[in-house]
């Protein structure tokens, strides 16, 4: 009897030890100690810096196309002999590259699948190298006509450049999240994305600083930075660690374990536990893929979800985001704002602040209230800005008011950008989240291409010649956007997507029925 009791006690002790070990590993996974090491820092910096290319490219083109010497070198005098790009050249500079960005959002999946996250990065930098080669050796002697032809008119080069940047911006958050410990994963990706705004501010400051130069360096310096930085980042990428998750998916378990050990300070327990969890997640993902197809997002059960998932991303573009962003400096110059470049810097700063504040507002106040309030503000601000433009802005006070309202509109508009990401990830079912996100991103780019193509035809002298009056046109589109959001955007903060959708649809039908009865 004593022997059986002894065995029973040993069994219980073993069970306790095993459970204690599990709890200890779980605690180390979620709240690790001494997790920060050189490999983690190096990877976070290298991958995070790649997102800065998007921030720089997205911001600097607006001020760049207003630099007088750049306009004169690329095009010559415009309408009335002024150094202003015409509608055709603005389209080539701004709209054409977005085609590459749209293609990149689809190309990222087949590219990173066979060659991995690191390979996709190196391939993306490869698309940027033609620009680098044309710039190397010419910056010190002045950028020749060939370089300017590529920058301003060679659509294929610009498409390839934005194709590469699009791959980087799609792969970077995934790669970073797969390398970082669980407890800092969200913060690391968040800080990297926030870095886009910081680099955007730097881009605006660089162009503002070079605008004061009276020779060819006025545009050489911003272009040289755009062309040279990818070369440096490509070399740094060789030092980065390949994703252990991707290596596991290719059955390269030994290398996956080696990489994970170097990222986790050679903590064997934590490394093995993370890899085991990732293996289970990959298996579940493969099982989900076996039962779903990409085209399922368009079947009758998911069609409404898919449309609503992509709508906020496109709505943000159609509300005139490009007017205050991409073409903001152009409109400020046309409005007669003497310190247009300084205002552009403030605009990029408030856009960064708005993108940081937006997630807090959506989580605290809810998706619907914030979205409807923000678009109402955009409508009012667009109406006032368009109305001011019709006064020809002859008075200093009018120009100051126009600049101030542009800054406020930039802040409010930045809040709408987060809505597209939130809805695209929350509304679709879990198994269709990735294809739905691709759908939303693609149509966001399509809308961006359309708006950036149309705006030069509206605002440019020699075309529509509306200038800042174009704000009134986008006031109209924002009213339409507001109406659609009111009836179909669900409140997802509490998780009741279907209930909220049914409620809004019932209200819409009830309202329509009352209107029909009143008419009859």
Report on this model:
This is MFS general substrate transporter. With 520 residues, this protein is mainly α. The chain folds into three domains: 208 residues, MFS general substrate transporter like domains (Growth Hormone, Chain: A, Up-down Bundle), CATH 1.20.1250; 45 residues, no CATH class; 216 residues, MFS general substrate transporter like domains (Growth Hormone, Chain: A), CATH 1.20.1250.20. 79% of the residues lie in helices and 0% in strands. The protein contains 19 helices and no strands. Helix 2 runs parallel beside helix 7 and helix 4 crosses helix 8. The longest helix is centred in the first third of the chain and has 49 residues. The chain is globular, with a radius of gyration of 26 Å. The N and C termini lie far apart (93 Å).
Shape: globular
The tally of beta strands, per DSSP, is 0
For the record, the count of structural domains works out to 3
As residue ranges, the low-confidence spans are 1-21, 133-153, 494-520
Please describe the biggest sheet, giving its number of strands, its sense, and whether it closes into a barrel. Answer: none
* CATH homolog superfamily of the largest domain: MFS general substrate transporter like domains
**Mean model confidence by pLDDT:** 80
Top CATH class of the largest domain: Mainly Alpha
Give the N-to-C terminal Cα separation.
93 Å
Annotation field: number of helices = 19
How much of the sequence is in beta strands? under 5%
* Fraction of residues in H or I helices: over 70%
Structural class: mainly alpha
Architecture per CATH nomenclature, i.e. the level-2 architecture of the largest domain: Up-down Bundle
CATH third-level topology of the largest domain:
Growth Hormone, Chain: A
- Give the radius of gyration: 26 Å
Order of helices and strands: HHHHHHHHHHHHHHHHHHH
List the quaternary state of the chains.
single chain
GO molecular function, one term: carbohydrate:proton symporter activity
Transmembrane segments: 36-56, 90-109, 189-209, 221-240, 318-337, 343-362, 369-390, 402-424, 436-459, 471-489
Organism: Dacryopinax primogenitus (strain DJM 731)
Main location: membrane
